[in-house]
Design a protein that fits this description.
Elements lengths: L4 H4 L10 E4 L2 E4 L6 H9 L2 H4 L10 H5 L10 E5 L2 H12 L17 H5 L8 H6 L9 H14 E5 L3 H12 L9 H13 L16 H9 L1 H26 L7
Length: about 250
Amino acid sequence: MANEVGKRNKVGHNDSVEIVHINGADYVNVDTTTPRGIEMAKSLKLIESGLAEIVFSSFLYKASSLFTEENHGRLFTVLRHPVDRAVSMFRYLQYADWEPTYSPHFANMTIEEYARTRVVENNWMTRFLSDTISGTVTEEHLEKAKKVLRDKFLIGLLEYKEESWSRIISYFGIDLNKETDPTKWECVHSFLKTGANRSKSGLGKLTEESDAYSILLLNNNLDVKLYDYAKVLFKYQGTLLESVRKQPELIQA
């Protein structure tokens, strides 16, 4: 896979793409989570190399430049409620000192204090899907983001992660068998059960009556609408995939 791990661990060479082995998993030695890293991966012909079966990136429009007429990609995403996402990001940044957005000030902040800072998430999904990282986002940007989700993505929802994963492996034809590859099977099912990058703070979920929840909700008002729309798409895509399961001939080559 290609994300930031293969590059962050500074394993391998910088002038060519190659597989690096980190904590029992295989990564390509690139960083597809930043614009600069994407440009480097493009110059090294990441996609043409055939080394990456999956590419992770928030920068949809930048990352699309990695692909060519001969080497297409298909998109999927797993979404969560914007307030839950913002809270999770804060708790992650309280200890993730390897992240470029990390600050030691986060460690002793409350979630309400964080919600009032300038670095808190502000309609993150709408911005990235409408290619409007900075400046003001409006209902017009929301409509563009909706169209991109509708037309381009297989959608998963974290609140239905088992079903989402089932759809992903079905859609992409991923062969995951407990008998033939027990290690990979156990890894996936452990992830589905316990997650990754879990908060070390031990704090529970925000209540909707809290000030922090209200502030985060206001900061992500467009993303909340986008998430509600994604839930509609998730249900609709489920009916389509069920039809394909019953009639495999519907799949186009």
